[in-house]
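Budget justification note: compute hours in this period were largely spent on complex prediction jobs such as the one shown. Inputs:
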Amino acid sequence: MNDPHNIRSVTGVDIELKIAGAGARSYAFLIDWHIRLIIALAWYIVGTVVVWGSLTPGEQSSAQFPLYLYAVLIPALVVYGLYHVVLEIVMRGSTPGKRIAGVRIVTQAGHTPGVFALLLRNVLRMFDSLPFGYAIGLTCAILTRQSVRIGDLAAGTVLVYQQSGSQALDVAQFANQDLDFAKVELVNELLDRWDELDPDKRRGLGQKLLVQMGRDGAEALDESTLKGELFELTGRRG
Amino acid sequence: MSSENARQQWINQRVGRWQQIEASLEDLSDGKPLSMDTLRDAMRAYPELAADLAYVRAEAPHSQIVNYLDKLYREMHRVLHLPARSRVEDLRHFLKFEVPGLMKLLSGKILAVTALFVLTGFAGWWLIATFPDLIGLVASPAMVDQVQEGKLWTDDLLNIMPSSVLAIGIFTNNVAVTLTAMVFGVLYGLGTLYIISLNGIMLGGVFSFVHKYGFSDELLRFVVAHGFVELSIICIAGGVGFYIGEAIARPGHLTRLQSFQQATRNGLRLLMLCIPFMIGAGVIEGYISPDASYSMAFCTTVGIVYWIVFGYALAGWPGLFNPKLDPAASGEHRS
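Corresponding output:
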């Protein structure tokens, strides 16, 4: 993950924006691309069959061409071509793909971007998509500190993670815990480093922590049960 | 009471409030009209979250509760800073003051692009007049064949497709050319230089070619009704492209990024005004230009009148929208 981008707030407490990298950006784009392609293709195929009676033009096709154009071809092209700009404006810096990928567009100050900024970043999509497969945009996202493409540079926007981590938290689990912050922190650190540690050492550390917290029979727990109990203690979802 | 117990008690007290804020964030994000109480509560929640976050950041910087409050605080910051809705006043200000201001700012570059377009147009004319075999570079084989057979490709346009379809196709093409001329200014203005020169050479070359076969008057009749505005918009887009290119090459007292942001924002704002006029040009090109029943005089009148209206819009609609600022209008009231 990229370095967080800190913003000063009027309250005096900084806001930490977690910048989404080229990977998250591409993931969101691919989801959006599939959604708009599927909708546009479905509209095109169903519309063509409804208007022409088949997928190929028949004898009366030329007479029905205006209807075909306005009801089938143009809407399909509009869905495909204006998907990003319309949805980003309507959903205030998000799209279904970005939502699934857990990212959204915000301004450099962490604000919801305005219509004009969203228009601008989409107009410059034309340049970012060159010469093929968003090569310029992707290269720019890989090379820039905030992982932004040319359109974002122009509009002053960044793509940030909407959630602070991969885990969704249920705040109710913080209440009425027997653990204090310091112990929670220790357990969290152990869980964060779990995969890097030697299996025997991590099991030993986990068992010691549970014993200190008064869990009887912690020494007999197998690794997955032990890890599950540690997650439960911290309120994290593994 | 130990400090651990005190901290846990504090969390127990705050959890309910955090849940309440989390729920209210969904309403705030929707953008629906909200009650004054909800808004007041959101305004109170923001500093409350800041204080809570500062406390847990100090006490347990790597804990999950920090992540949770970070997210709440970030979301509250975002939704409290939604951009203001555009008002009619903003549109009036844009049309009345911003557009003429931007035109003044870009006038030198737009004139330079226009001069480039005219020069390359003459160059294209000369090129095809001197080396007729090069016509394949600026016109499609179908166009060349039709002219050599004694008719213009524009003659049959309305037989091939209805005016409305033609107008939509032309509008789409115009938008693409205009935005390309602007966006390719990112390449230090060289992309714009290439696009404008290419368009100039093509237009001049095609006119030279049809002139040889005696169709230049007919092509001029086709072009004149929509051409003034259409070509003006392309020149403006080219001027914007040069402006962006210069902003990157010579940022002045700003950083290169700031200068680029300023130029693209200003440029796109100016082109926003051009979009309705591009629609109008598309309609004229779809309905009037290809119809041979309209005379040259009629087409010229349409072209010039439309061009004057466009120029009037670029000048900020003098005398319209804001009668209080118009001395002539205020004079009438006094008398």
